[in-house]
Write a structure and sequence with these properties.
- By secondary structure, this protein is mostly helical.
- The protein has one domain.
- Helices cover about 80% and strands about 0% of the residues.
- The protein is built from seven helices and no strands.
- Helix 2 runs antiparallel to helix 6, helix 3 runs antiparallel to helix 4 and helix 3 packs antiparallel against helix 5.
- The chain is rod-shaped and about 125 Å long.
- Probable chloride channel.
- GO terms for molecular function: intracellularly calcium-gated chloride channel activity; volume-sensitive chloride channel activity.
- Pfam families: Tweety.
């Protein structure tokens, strides 16, 4: 179920990006499709997320293997290269470096956009937690009032009405009204219990705190990694433009670590995106 009914008649629809990640095939270790409903307590579901998250890691291993093969061939190749091949290589490096700079720029924008979205989520979660707390407090106060004030007063009225009176008709009417009030009090108490019972263990404080800490770590770390990647791209451009062997060697060494970190981050973000897509596509099954 991808849509939920709202109080005002509107229906919730999962965002297109969430539907895209939700439609990614969820496979278990035997490469069979499994249920894509968000279920963090299910080992099979977590296994499918792990397999999806391992795809960038597998691509990283393949990239490193191809790089190793290339370096081995270059080490064994002692033939001098003509100038035109070096010029082509320079233009190729410059082109892909500019593309990498553009990709890093998109990543910086996306990271900031995600940060703003998480802040909005935290604000909404705090508002929901406050509403839940207010409902608990108000229902508890009403229940205490019924138990400590209303019920004793009704009991006292019952004792008063038990005394003999001359007008039995009026007494019967008062007893009927008292019985109705007692029934209404019992019904109100039962209704309050129905409201309070599912809310007793509900608290978003720990989740909000954990999400706030995670975002406080994720946002600056991602910004730092992307900024470092941008610096590496600038170093490569400078090395290509100035024929600086030192700059190219520096990029080769640190660029390798940057590639590894980038693909590891891609694994983490892909896993988190698929999980969030599954949750946004059908939040009812998890909330209930």
């Amino acid at each position: 179920m991808a849509s939920l009914g709202g109080i005002d008649g509107t229906r919730y629809t999962a965002p297109p990006l969430a539907r895209f990640f939700h439609k990614l095939p969820h496979l278990n270790i035997s490469l069979h499709l499994v249920n894509s409903t968000f279920a963090p307590d299910s080992e099979i579901y977590l296994e499918s997320l792990g397999i999806l998250g391992s795809l960038p890691a597998a691509w990283l291993i393949l990239t490193l293997f191809l790089l190793l093969v290339y370096l081995l061939t270059r080490c064994c190749d002692r033939k001098p290269r003509p100038k035109h091949s070096i010029v082509i290589l320079k233009w190729t490096l410059s082109f892909f470096t500019v593309l990498c700079c553009a990709a890093v720029g998109v990543g910086l924008y996306g990271n900031d956009d995600v940060h703003n979205g998480v802040l909005e989520l935290l604000t909404a979660a705090r508002s929901i937690d406050d509403i839940i707390g207010n409902v608990k407090n108000q229902t508890g106060a009403i229940d205490s009032t019924l138990k400590l004030k209303v019920t004793p007063l009704l009991t006292e009225l019952g004792d008063v009405f038990d005394d003999p009176v001359a007008n039995q008709t009026a007494r019967a009417m008062l007893l009927a009204a008292l019985a109705a009030m007692t029934g209404n009090t019992s019904a109100a108490h039962n209704s309050l219990q129905d409201i309070m019972r599912p809310l007793r263990g509900v608290s978003l404080s720990n989740t909000i705190t954990a999400l706030h800490i995670a975002e406080a770590i994720r946002w600056p770390v991602t910004m730092a990694v992307l900024s470092i990647l941008l610096v590496f791209c600038v170093v490569l451009l400078v090395g290509v433009a100035r024929h600086s062997r030192c700059a190219l060697i520096t990029f080769s060494v640190f660029g390798l670590f940057a590639v590894i970190i980038s693909w590891l981050l891609a694994s983490i973000y892909l896993t988190a995106s698929v999980a969030l897509g599954d949750l946004c596509n059908n939040p009812n099954s998890f909330v209930e």
